[in-house]
Amino acid sequence: MALIERFSLRKWRALLWSKVESSSILGIAVGTGKNFPYYPADAEITAVDFSEKMLERAKDRAKKQKVKVRLQQMDVQNLDFADNTFDTVAATFVFCSIPDQVRGIREVERVCKPGGKAVLLEQDLSANRILGWLVNLANPLLVRMTGANFNRRPVDTVAKSGLTVEQVTNLRLGLFKLIEARKRTHLS
Asked: Residue 105's closest CA among 181, 52, 50?
């Protein structure tokens, strides 16, 4: 993963964080804090993760890098925030490992303010027909080994959530996608 991080993911993380809007931001599945270097300096950022151990590592990294972030243990499928709380919700490579990805994205939509933005960097291995077929074949084993579903279609999931997909940037032959979506300002 270190090579992938160095040659691709760093650029993609920077791209994702260049798309956030306003100053009230929620980071989903902060992990060990690999996104910290890209956080906007003037933003109020809350970051959550399901894993207490990941949050401990993120807390250490935030302290070392002098990053201002409020860290909380929380499941994206059941966010403990009021409706319409954040201007932007951001996540990198999260929704392949969440058991109910639609529920997770609906929670993102719920806590995002009307007109607010969701920016998601996700994999979409189905973009390549042969690779997608192989992943579908191997997915039961991959889920047991890694906990991640590599055969999900993130753009479709975002569209099912109630968010409006505004832009999809294909990265690395479309196998990775930067998805920009917006919460409706009123019921249609």
From this structure: 181
Kindly give, in sequence order, each residue whose CB lies less than 8 Å from that of residue 147, ignoring residues fewer than 6 positions away.
97
Q: Is 28 left (phi over 0), alpha (psi -120 to 50) or beta?
A: beta
Q: What 3-state class would DSSP assign to 170?
A: strand
Edge-to-edge strands, sheet with 176-182:
70-73, 44-49, 24-28, 86-92, 112-123, 176-182, 164-171
Three-state secondary structure call for residue 125: helix
CATH number of the domain located at residue range(s) 2-182 in this protein = 3.40.50.150
Expressed in percent and rounded to 5, the helix, strand and coil fractions of the chain are 40, 25, 35
73: part of which helix (H) or strand (E)? strand 70-73
Element (H, E) at 137: helix 129-146
Gap between the Cα atoms of 8 and 12, Å rounded = 6
- The model's pTM: 0.86
Q: Write out the H or E segment, with its range, that includes residue 112.
A: strand 112-123
Q: What is the pLDDT of residues 82-136, one digit of tens each?
A: 999 999 999 998 877 788 888 999 999 999 999 999 999 987 767 667 655 566 6
Q: For residues 17 and 178, is the Cβ–Cβ distance under 8 A? A: no
